[in-house]
Amino acid sequence: MTTIRQDDFVASVADAFQFISYYHPADYVRALAQAYEREASPAAKDAMAQILINSRMSAEGHRPMCQDTGIAIAFVRVGMDVRWDAKLSLQQMVDEGVRRAYTDRDNPLRASVLADPDGTRTNTKDNTPAVVHVELVPGDEVEVIVAAKGGGSENKSKFACLLPSDSIVDWVLSVVPTMGADWCPPGILSLGVGGTPEKAMLLAKWGMMDPIDMQQLLARGPSSHAEELRIELYEKVNALGIGAQGLGGLTTVLDVKVADWPTHAASKPVALLPNCAATRHAHFVLDGSGPARLAPPSLDDWPKLALDFGASRRVDLDTLTRADIAAWKAGDRLLLSGRLLTGRDAAHKRLTEMLARGETLPVDFRDRFIYYVGPVDAVRDEAVGPAGPTTSSRMDRFTETMLAQTGLIGMVGKSERGPAAVEAIRRHGAVYCIAVGGAAYLVSKAIKRSKVLAFGDLGMEAIYEFEVQDMPVIVAVDAQGASVHRSGPAEWRARIGRIPVAVA
User: Fold this and answer.
1) Residues sharing a CB contact under 8 Å with residue 134, sequence separation 6 or more, in sequence order
2) Domain extents in the chain
3) For 33-43, what is each residue's pLDDT tens digit?
4) The CATH number fitting domain 313-488, selected from 3.20.130.10, 3.90.1150.10, 3.30.380.10, 1.10.10.60
């Protein structure tokens, strides 16, 4: 009988969450590098290059690859012959490991978990509690998979109770275009089919931890219905032309996973979960000999790429006017320098409530740009920790008010805007730009100074002022209302030309 010590388990969980914050799985790096070599869309290729360069920088610097260091998830398979030398429950041991990982002094991770989710939404400060799934299995070892899932990809999870005769392929192709780029493609789609609704979701979550092996599957051919479904969906989803960051291109998914379970004769529950460009998970086994040791990947796994901003226009944010931005076109590449405000969901909610009450705002937004970001805390000589963009569509409900009442002229975030926000941008002659989701550490290197201007109690959701130098962005919606997230996928879907699916 194996004895697993509490300290060994907690230390292993803490080390694993630190590990996955800055190391991509090697199979993801290889798959993305292969997709980069195949990519024909210049915009998508540039986005992939930034993600790969960011990934290597994070591996070298031991800092998070994405500012959204995720909600902590642990799958724990406990051998039935295991004995525990522990005073804490399994949930408590996982939580203690998460707490240590997320409050590490050398590499603090962003605390994103909020208690009382439909009430006060109070940050727990250490990213606990984790979501823990436990299974008892034969044997005398404890197998653990830890994962950190960001909100952008988790929010795009889909579920349906299909009829037994319904086509899973048709359903997937109907919902993927509605997901847009909020989940930061290129990534992985994982399907759980059968069982009950909660079982299907769990199957899909498990499946996304499997190795990326689509190219090997394509080379050898399918040997089961599930593998046939994987290939069909891989080809047809990529034929949608959504591409990296939703800019249009050949690769939207690097792999598709399918796991199934017997289900009721009247049912066909199907779950679809995306895993984003910040694919983060690690596997380890405890056998009673001490804490787990995770082997770092070799830097040789990363391609040697360099940033190319030769086609980018340099922009001084401190002298920018509405007349200047009127000349920009959707798809233009820019390098921003100067003072850049920040703010996301909680700050926008407060600002619009203050405007509704006729109160003076604590920040002057006239002729300014705002960056939708919740950065990681800085360490050592950093001005700010990893600071990639958050999902911009969450700010859509505030866009008209902000543009109409504050003098704001520009926004920077991630992925597409909804129709109402695009119309507000057009009507007010504003502009919306995107930074690459999944390149948070790279983006942070363009931020030279940072200070909190307002709402400091909101932590990472406070309003900061960044001083940036050559921060790379793309004009996603110009002052005339043209959007790259409509034109890019439409162009590349037409080029690929395999299936007639309308762009959402």
Assistant:
1) 76, 77, 78, 90
2) 1-150+282-308, 151-277, 313-488
3) 999 999 999 99
4) 3.20.130.10
Token pair belonging to 157: 């999870």
Q: Where are the alpha helices (DSSP H) in 321-370?
A: 322-325, 345-356
Instruction: For residues 473-482, give the mean pLDDT.
Output: 97
- Tens digit of pLDDT for each residue in 126-178? 999 999 999 999 999 999 999 999 998 999 999 999 999 999 999 999 999 99
Distances (CA, A) of 56 to 188, 277, 441: 20, 13, 10
CA atoms within 13 A on the CB side of 7: 2
7-38 as b/e: b if 16+ CB within 10 A: ebbbbbbbbbbbbbbbbbbbbbbbbbbbbbee
The pLDDT assigned to 502 comes to 44
CATH top-level class of 151-277? alpha beta
For residue range 363-392, list pLDDT tens digits in order: 999 999 999 999 999 999 999 999 999 999
The Cα 294–Cα 291 span in angstroms is 10
| Range of lowest pLDDT (52-56, 297-301, 306-310, 313-317) | 306-310
pLDDT surpassing 80 at residue 196 = yes
For 56-81, the pLDDT digits (tens) are 999 999 999 999 999 999 999 999 99
CA distances from 149 to 74, 277, 455, 501 (A): 11, 11, 27, 29
In whole angstroms, how far apart are CA 86 and each of 4, 13, 53, 100?
A: 8, 15, 42, 17
**Banded model confidence at residue 497, pLDDT cuts 50, 70, 90:** confident
Pairing relationship of beta strands 71-79 and 142-149 according to DSSP bridges:
antiparallel
Q: How far apart are the first and last CA of the chain?
A: 57
Count of beta carbons in the 10 Å neighbourhood of residue 89: 11
Q: What does the alpha-carbon distance between residue 41 and residue 198 come to, in Å, rounded to a whole number?
A: 38
Sheet of 187-194: strands edge to edge?
A: 158-162, 268-275, 187-194, 253-261
CA atoms within 13 A on the CB side of 389: 30
Spatial separation of the C-alpha atoms in residues 47 and 485, rounded to whole Å: 14
Beta-sheet pairing, 82-85 with 2-5: parallel
Rounded Cα distance between 146 and 406, Å, is 44
Using CA atoms, how far residue 465 sits from 97, 293, 357, 438, in Å, is 33, 40, 25, 22
Number of CB atoms found within 10 A of residue 119's CB: 8
